[in-house]
DNA sequence: GAGTATTCGTTCAGCGGCCAAACATACTCC
DNA sequence: GGAGTATGTTTGGCCGCTGAACGAATACTC
């Protein structure tokens, strides 16, 4: 909980009463997020006085971020409070995901509800960059119109891409699996759109998926976890103390190129025995006797799952071996980051029942602290939606963290 | 930069003007740390107004944390400013290190200068826990007396241990290389001491060494780096954005048990191929034909260095092989954390000339982003002192971060 | 049914923080 | 010696939080 702004500007910044107000407004809004609460309850949760909460809530009401839900049915003696909740029409975020196997776009309101969803499956690798970006821009235009029709003011747009993003320049540096490099995605999408955009931001899909999982709120009280996103490549989104850790240059979480088997097969990156080579989707499919090259992502996975459902030995063995390798990678994550929760997303989510036991065994053998502090390994809640939803909600994050700064609907 | 308190209490806390004051006082003190500066320069550095800086400096002066150094020799037109600097007698921290190869203890003043230093080399593994702790307590007593004699008020005591520390309970959970487990180090040292202690804290040596390096301030502008501490064990202290990352439970940075050779020798931890087993000091010494068991730490290292100086092939080969394995570990760190600087400490510091090339080669082969973003690998500046000095300074950190909260000399 | 206790939300004076601007101070340059 | 410039201090104003008092709405008690 910091009242100082996070972000690229690393310079130490002085603080004044306005920052205090912002911080406390964020606290109040966070308290309201968890469900209908009265002003007095918010005061109890946040530690602020009722007077302060009242004043902040007044501002949030006129900003349209919070609504009063009328007097609550009395629960005991004393005057009953008036319930407060996030205003579903208080604003929305648009999320877009550009991925190897398709495009998707959602509109999410302040309460986290998905109000609009469109997906366009299909292999994007054969298509020209411009064509893909134009399709994506069209999805955004539809989403913006849908939001307006629903009476929602769009506060921001988040775009998720499968590659390394230069956050300062907001440029996609390289996306190996798309074959793109140095693409100013936002700029080109914006110019392909016919509508005026609110603020927009670009980020890596694993990072945004991790944020999506974080905000889905189903992972207990943990504010430190790693989302391991399995696909052809293997990436990790690292959330420490509630904050996404992109690393100094945004290149963090490259779990796929962790060395697991020094004498293993050669990787595209030039090294040997990268995790990606012995736990990635292609390897699993090959090992299971399926054809990875012709059938990618959404195509081959059903065949694999069918084989697993029938306990086909090669498929089961492939996934179990991948699980063991993955466990070595997870052990490394836990030994280094000391997170207590690891969430498996992407294709690892449906494969979880078969991956779990070997992965857990490897982790328990290799993590020194596992004896004192249990490590939770769970499948992703949002599944393939994690990145889009995370992108949309990240667009709302600024509003939620600093409700009075960027607020003001219409 | 946060004005909210960090620490075990994770509950969201409201903020008020007092916190603003604390935050800004910390800013001012940080600006003063970098060298003699005038009030006006501090205002420029921090973004505060001269009025505010003046008022804060007044408080820091009466608190005895800052001194005026008289009018500065004029540099151009205008009234010359009065230089401010940290008060060398403004307080001190005591650091103690309990390690396999000896005990050491230092007193560090506010400016970071070491004012007292005692080391007691010798293998601690044969000695009973109580005996070791009593020796350490005696060192602390000597340090407290030395500080008093120098007119320094000791603000806190930091203890560094080579093992996993439960920060909430302040208990050393396990120190494999000492053979200790579940030792309430602080409690037992305190009761073995004849003097009254100020606040004390216990932490892992690699973490404290990383803090020591961070505050030594010689690593450029980086505020994200990893210190890899080589000894019989291998630990890592992770500093991200200027903050030490202990992980959710303080068990982070266990680099020594990263798997680098799945079929390698069995480790004490039960797994196979831990980095510690193929790049730790014992392994290097054995491989170099020296006797690790009879001659530890400060005893065997000179022999190794002498052999290296004479280019003795077995010694050179041993260190080069260790460097290659270490490089695999460093690559994992960089791929996951995306730090741009890795500092090698402990025994790795004197071995650096021989380690560097193979380690760097392994890193460059295994880190995907190394092509765009160069990775700096340097030896530690503080060498074997990093952990003790870090421990002493960590005891001062609370004062520096919140000068007005815990201040008040005498 | 009336009075009392309890809880909720608001109002108001007070305190402490920062800021902006004016002022006093000290030094250089002409 | 006066003009110009930069430092440090003082003053008035604004803003946010606090604590206590107050009106409002409900339950409990006799």
Can you characterise this structure?
2 copies of one chain form a homodimer. With 410 residues, chain A is α/β, with parallel strands linked by helices. The first copy, chain A, is 39% helix and 21% strand. Chain A has helices at residues 17-33, 39-46, 50-62, 129-149, 185-192, 205-216, 275-279, 281-287, 300-309, 313-337, 348-366, 386-401, and strands spanning 66-71, 82-86, 92-99, 102-109, 114-121, 154-161, 164-166, 171-175, 180-183, 200-204, 225-230, 234-240, 243-244, 341-346, 376-379. In chain A, the strands form 4 sheets. Chain A has a 5-stranded mixed sheet with strand order 5-4-3-6-10. In chain A, strands 13-12-11-14-15 form a 5-stranded mixed sheet, sandwiched between helices. In chain A, strands 7-8-9 form a 3-stranded antiparallel sheet, with helices on one face. In chain A, α2 (39-46) packs across α3. At the A-B interface, α1, β12 and α10 of A face α1, β12 and α10 of B.
Classification by helices and strands of chain A = alpha/beta
What proportion strand of chain A?
15-25%
Number of strands of chain A: 15
**Biggest interface, chains and residue tallies:** A-B, 68 and 70 residues
- CA(first)-CA(last) distance of chain A: 29 Å
| Strand order, largest beta sheet of chain A | 5-4-3-6-10
How would you sum up the major sheet of chain A?
Answer: 5 strands, mixed
Order of helices and strands of chain A: HHHEEEEEHEEEEHEHEEEHHHHEHEH
- The percentage helix of chain A is 25-40%
The Rg value of chain A, from CA coordinates, equals 23 Å
């Amino acid at each position: 909980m910091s009242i100082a702004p996070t972000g690229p500007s690393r310079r130490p910044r002085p603080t004044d009463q306005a920052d205090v107000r912002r911080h406390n407004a964020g606290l109040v809004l966070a308290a309201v997020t968890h469900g209908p609460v009265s002003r007095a309850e918010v005061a109890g949760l946040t530690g602020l006085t009722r007077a302060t909460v009242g004043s902040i809530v007044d501002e949030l009401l006129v900003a349209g971020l919070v609504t009063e839900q009328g007097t609550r049915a009395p629960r005991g003696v004393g005057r009953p409070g008036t319930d407060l909740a996030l205003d579903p029409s208080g604003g929305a975020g648009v999320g877009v995901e550009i991925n190897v196997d398709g495009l998707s776009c959602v509109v999410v309101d302040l309460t986290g509800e998905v109000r609009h969803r469109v997906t366009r499956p299909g292999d994007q690798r054969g298509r020209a960059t411009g064509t893909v970006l134009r399709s994506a821009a069209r999805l955004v235009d539809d989403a913006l119109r849908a939001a307006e029709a629903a009476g929602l003011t769009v506060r921001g747009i988040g775009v998720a891409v499968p590659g390394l993003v230069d956050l300062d320049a907001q440029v996609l540096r390289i996306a190996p699996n798309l074959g793109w490099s140095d693409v100013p995605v936002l700029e080109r999408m914006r110019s392909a759109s016919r509508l005026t955009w609110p603020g927009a931001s670009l980020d890596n899909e694993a990072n945004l998926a991790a944020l999506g999982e974080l905000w889905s709120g189903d992972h207990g009280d943990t504010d430190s976890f790693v989302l391991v996103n399995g696909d052809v490549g293997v990436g990790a989104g690292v959330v420490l103390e509630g904050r996404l850790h992109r690393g100094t240059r945004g290149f963090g979480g490259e779990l796929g190129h962790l060395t697991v088997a020094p004498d293993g097969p050669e990787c595209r990156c030039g090294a040997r025995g990268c995790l990606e080579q012995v736990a990635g989707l292609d390897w699993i499919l090959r090992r299971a006797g399926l054809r990875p090259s012709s059938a990618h992502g959404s195509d081959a996975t059903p065949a694999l799952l069918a084989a697993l459902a029938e306990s086909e030995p090669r498929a089961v063995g492939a996934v179990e071996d991948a699980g063991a390798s993955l466990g070595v990678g997870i052990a490394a994550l836990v030994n280094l980051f000391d997170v207590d929760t690891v969430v498996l997303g992407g294709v690892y989510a449906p494969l979880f029942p078969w991956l779990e036991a070997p992965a857990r065994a490897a982790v328990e053998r290799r993590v020194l602290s596992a004896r004192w502090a249990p490590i939770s390994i769970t499948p992703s809640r949002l599944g393939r939606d994690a990145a889009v939803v995370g992108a949309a909600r990240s667009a709302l994050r600024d509003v939620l963290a600093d409700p009075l700064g960027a607020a003001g609907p219409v």
